[in-house]
Amino acid sequence: MANTGQPNSAGSQYFITVEPTPWLNGGYAAFGHVTLGSDIVEEISEVPTDANDKPLVDVEIDSIRIMTPQFYGIIPEEDSLYVNAGDQLVFGMLTYEPDVTFAWFVDDELQIEISFIFNVSLTVNGWHEITGVASKNGYDYVKIWWVEITGGTNSENIIITTNKLFQNSPNPFNPSTTISFELYTETSENTELVIYNLKGQLIKTLVSEPLSAGRHSYVWNGTDESGKKVSNGIYFYKLTSGDYSETRKALMLK
């Protein structure tokens, strides 16, 4: 989005570029990239111009239709991730729009998950492609993440003996739910079980202390650190113990 060089001066002008423009980096808000109609963008960039680079014949928009579902969050924001084998990864395409359908792919293989949140744990070394597709009114918005896995195996047949975070029960819940996990070894460092909202803000710490090996369960009563009831919606709960971490989602309905 164009601006005058001063804070909060961006307006209704936008740059759509057809070649690298490093002088724009860091000084302008970027909103995305062209996914359909790049040939039209190329044609516009090649129209005859005067000495001031103004088109000799105005390029006008006759009509416009917004087809892409509007997202208030894409998680993670980074396009490339570098993680250890077995880490639990969470991807999301967050929108308030109704009638949006979702599909998820790992290395071009369709997954069974059809919600806007996708959990996956990868164990094979190398690069993997995670693709989320949000569809509405016959239009597909495609988001691709690249994930490099290290510390795993080169075989697709692997069994990992590690800690385990279970799905909360009941889910959806109201007013409380139980979150359980399994630790295979005793921890000398703090094991943490925390709740986050969709914006990544810390809502509640259920436990933060060294724990013995075995199964542990904690009840979340739908309140924040101050004891105030949180609003209904989707929350993430994350277990961290040493080098291990895993995240799952919970849905609170009132």
Topology:
Elements (H helix, E strand, L loop, with lengths): L37 H8 L27 E3 L4 E5 L3 E7 L6 E6 L2 E2 L6 E5 L4 E11 L2 E12 L13 E2 L11 E7 L7 E6 L5 E8 L4 E7 L12 E9 L2 E9 L2
Parallel strand pairs: 2-8
Antiparallel strand pairs: 1-3, 3-6, 4-5, 4-7, 7-8, 9-10, 10-13, 11-12, 11-14, 14-15
CATH class (first level) name of one domain = Mainly Beta
Specify the number of helices: 1
For the biggest sheet, the summary is: 5 strands, mixed
SSE pattern: HEEEEEEEEEEEEEEE
Amino-to-carboxy terminus distance: 40 Å
Radius of gyration: 23 Å
The averaged pLDDT comes out at 85
Total strands: the figure is 15
Low-confidence sequence ranges: 155-161
| Dominant shape | elongated
CATH topology of one domain: Immunoglobulin-like
Computed structural class: mainly beta
Looking across the biggest beta sheet, what order are the strands in? 2-8-7-4-5
What does this structure look like?
The chain is built from 1 helix and 15 strands. With 254 residues, the protein is mostly beta strands. Among the domains are: 73-150, Sandwich (Immunoglobulin-like); 164-252, Immunoglobulin-like (Sandwich), CATH 2.60.40. The protein starts with 37 loop residues before the first helix and ends with a strand.
Jot down its keywords.
254 residues; Immunoglobulin-like; four-stranded antiparallel β-sheet; 39% strand; 3% helix; five-stranded mixed β-sheet; mainly beta
